[in-house]
Task: inverse folding
């Protein structure tokens, strides 16, 4: 059973995009904590800790729930969740959970979290990554300090300012008539396929990344590259930009250090597809359903 929708009206509605939490959540900055009781956004080994007391998973309340004994970080104020302060806490992998809390994966094939908690957990994962990589300045190695009212930080040594780094990637569905090009990474389950994807490289625009990644991964040429939409992918800090493109030539030549398989699949006979929480699946469903 999944708590996620079977379809999304637009890519903006996909999990991890801000749209799915904006009704309940306002992002602020750590220096603006108003104090008082609120909610804990606790991550343990990439899993979100939720209260099991109600019919549906909920964020633990600082009024009700005890904290795990072993924590890896001080609480960081993120903003307001349902009108109360929401604070991020990194819980050690080996910490035992207090009664009434359980850990739910953010990357399960069928996440057992409602859309807004899945997205909020993703946001927490992205922010935690920034906090972990921004302790010291990349220029000179001195400690960094928070900038007021920002998520950026300033170096206490050389004075350089650093801001959260979000990495643009492309993901592309290639069509040839009624067939779709799908690929399988070695670490994926048998018969589980996805799409060509990769990071933007120096000096490229997004369409150039599409052309290069398709050439590198499967040895094909594409044309009519069209942007469809994007998705925040907070594992740890990517922005996935989704494209559709038409096959223009070439035979499949696999990049064997990245992929285990690649092939053309008729739209009526598709293998196991990515879960319905990613833009990969959105692009495939969109193409199949016209
Ligand atoms: Zn510095």
Result:
């Amino acid at each position: 059973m999944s708590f996620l929708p079977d379809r999304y009206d637009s890519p903006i509605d996909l999990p991890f995009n801000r749209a799915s939490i904006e009704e309940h959540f306002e992002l602020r900055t750590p220096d603006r904590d108003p104090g008082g009781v609120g909610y804990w956004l606790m991550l343990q080994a990439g899993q979100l800790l939720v209260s099991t007391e109600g019919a549906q998973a909920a964020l633990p309340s600082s009024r009700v729930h005890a904290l795990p004994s072993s924590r890896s970080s001080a609480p960081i104020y993120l903003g307001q969740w349902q009108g109360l302060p929401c604070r991020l806490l990194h819980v050690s992998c080996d910490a035992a959970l207090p009664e009434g809390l359980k850990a739910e994966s953010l990357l399960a094939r069928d996440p057992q979290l409602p859309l807004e908690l899945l997205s909020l957990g993703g946001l927490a994962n992205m922010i935690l990554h920034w906090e972990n990589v921004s302790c010291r300045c990349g220029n000179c190695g001195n400690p960094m300090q928070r900038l007021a009212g920002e998520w950026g930080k300033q170096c206490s040594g050389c004075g350089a300012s650093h801001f959260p780094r979000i990495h643009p990637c492309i993901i592309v569905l290639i069509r040839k008539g009624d067939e779709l090009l799908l690929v399988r990474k070695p670490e994926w389950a048998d018969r589980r396929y996805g799409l060509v994807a990769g990071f933007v490289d120096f000096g490229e625009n997004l369409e150039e990344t599409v052309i290069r990644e398709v050439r590198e991964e499967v040895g094909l040429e594409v044309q009519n590259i069209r942007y469809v939409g994007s998705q925040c992918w907070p594992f740890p800090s990517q922005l996935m930009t989704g494209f559709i493109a038409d096959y223009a030539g070439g035979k499949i030549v696999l990049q064997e250090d990245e992929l285990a398989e690649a092939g053309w699949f008729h739209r009526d006979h598709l293998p196991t597809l990515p879960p319905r929480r990613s833009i990969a699946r959105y692009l495939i469903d969109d193409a199949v359903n016209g």
Summary: The domain at 11-133 is CATH 3.90.79 (Nucleoside Triphosphate Pyrophosphohydrolase). The helical segments are 115-133, 206-218, 279-288. The radius of gyration is 21 Å.
